[in-house]
Here is the input.
Amino acid sequence: MKKGKLIYEGKAKKVYATDNPDLLIQEFKDDATAFDATKRGTIGDKGVCNNKISNQLFELLETKGIATHFVKLLSEREMLIKRLEIIPVEVTVRNIVAGGMAKLLGLAEGRILKIPVLEYHYKNDTLHDPLINDYHILALELAEEEELKAIAQYSFQVNQILLNFFDQCNLKLVDFKLEFGRHKGKILLGDEISPDTCRLWDKTTDKKLDKDRFRRDLGEVEAAYQEVLRRVCQKKA
Ligand code: 5GP
Here is the structure.
């Protein structure tokens, strides 16, 4: 697969064209940002870890019937993906109170939620990805009703699959963010699934093994990403 021109550069990834207009190459960088890019840094080999972790998780989800943009792993930092028309909505699923939900509702982190909470955020850095609901999405024509139904259904299914998988890695899946897009009339799961986009706590000690170590200056950031990769690969083997 020939790597073509750079068509998009985000905070953590670069996307390149290929000789097939339906396929793109997603390259994972070590750059890390937080709080709408007001905090910046690099995390050594984060790109390698996130590419490999996402690869394992997309493969797992595909085997369970979730359609994703993942095609195949190309190299340590690159994966081949299907081209998506991205829906500008970030979908968050929460199992335990943390981060944005703790702040929004004045709750302590760590409370186990009675049922998973699904949230939509409008993907817009200038506005700080504001919380929106189904009505905003339909009224602003960000997605069709059928698409939104599929997105919600997929998100809860992904949660069940990942909860089970991470549990076997001795990790609590606290919350995570998903992005979806359209490809040939179908809704596919896109982006990445990694310690950048999930909160993962050690099941025994509650130690944070995700991007919160960078966001909150907790130290041992690289080690946390490596540890998640180790557990994910070990579980798969
Ligand atoms: P919160 O809303 O609590 O900040 O984030 C909830 C979950 O979604 C966390 O696992 C967090 O890592 C992920 N998340 C939400 N928004 C973003 C984002 O813009 N970028 C990344 N990498 N993750 C996000």
In short: Helices lie at 46-63, 99-105, 134-139, 145-168, 212-215, 221-236. Residues 34 and 46 are 15 Å apart (CA to CA).
